[in-house]
């Protein structure tokens, strides 16, 4: 074998030696996986940062955007330090993996026959997923890291406008460690739900159901926004809100398209189904707004888009296009009904202040999608995704009827775990630092919490503290003399 070029370190594998591109590495799969990870990352930063910063009242723009940005950074460090192995490492419990770092350079071994475990040549460590992607471990770690990050950021949507930022800084690593990793291992990492045959193609349960339920639970413990904010909470920038939503929609190609861990037929089906369902759902939600409220709502359209994206996620690569349309019709109507009708009649939901209705757009839509996957999952596509069991949707007969029960039970586990664990986390944090901002910060907003403001404009009713600035922030409140001095009008 020829000597490697200068500065290229050979990689040992399967008893031999190769250059930086060994025979087992599929460069196409690896490229698509890294692109998918980047697309999912862009859903969070800048997608949700922009969406959160613009969909809230002006005085909370900075705080809301920063909660998303901080969570993203915190999850990255926690993920590679211990959480990845808890989600995809050796089994500690039927629903949890052993903690450990994912910082080394491990390389996947190509195996011609489907293995029971995915092995790494250089350390003898064994990972639990039953599939063997043909690319480095680093690609998998980063792709799954982006899923973990967006889960926490979605959860933040329930507590915007009142959660103490210091409490949030404690909440992020605790919820990632004790809640997210459990769902990820149970359904994706080789845990008991995975082996039982519960299907969650790309996170309808692991990400959306968990963040929706945890968000509602956290909102209960944190308490509501100020009465003024609950009564009037207009978006501060509708156009930027649409831009953030657009990044989410386009980024979902990586969210669902990257989950087969290869650029195959399944990934193409997932991307097409994702867009079909999202478009259908947006249209249905908008039509319902027009029929019942006589006006098409832009926020409503975004919510319909979101529920469509969430609903198709657990079955994106498992269903046919006609099923994606049906799922879109239901995702545009069922969460609309729970938000517009059930929420207003259910006393408990009325008491809990879920700022961005994450419960409806993610928990309801995610659970709905999981159950519909149990109905519409096509047998051959299901075999590609979940070779552990002969899973199929109910419409295809055979044992398909049992799949619906599995989907319901799997979702119930995620719901129960998140209610209990999120409550414990909030109670523990509350012993150290208040979960809720003090009243003065709630009254003023970003300027009190961060000493910063999104726009140099004032006049929509917030209390303004002029002593914190050397110059005033709004010409409608103050005028400038010819000498440059500032006078109060």
UniProtKB/TrEMBL annotation:
The keyword Transport applies. Keywords: Ammonia transport, Membrane, Transmembrane, Transmembrane helix, Transport. It comes from the Eukaryota. Gene3D superfamilies: Ammonium transporter AmtB like domains. The keyword Membrane applies. GO terms for cellular component: plasma membrane. The chain crosses the membrane at residues 31-53, 65-84, 141-160, 172-193, 205-223, 235-255, 267-286, 298-316, 322-343, 355-377, 408-433. It is found in: Cell membrane. Its main location: membrane. Pfam families: Ammonium_transp (PF00909). One of its GO terms (molecular function) is ammonium channel activity. It is a multi-pass membrane protein. Residues 31-455 form the Ammonium transporter AmtB-like domain. Belongs to the ammonia transporter channel (TC 1.A.11.2) family. This is Ammonium transporter.
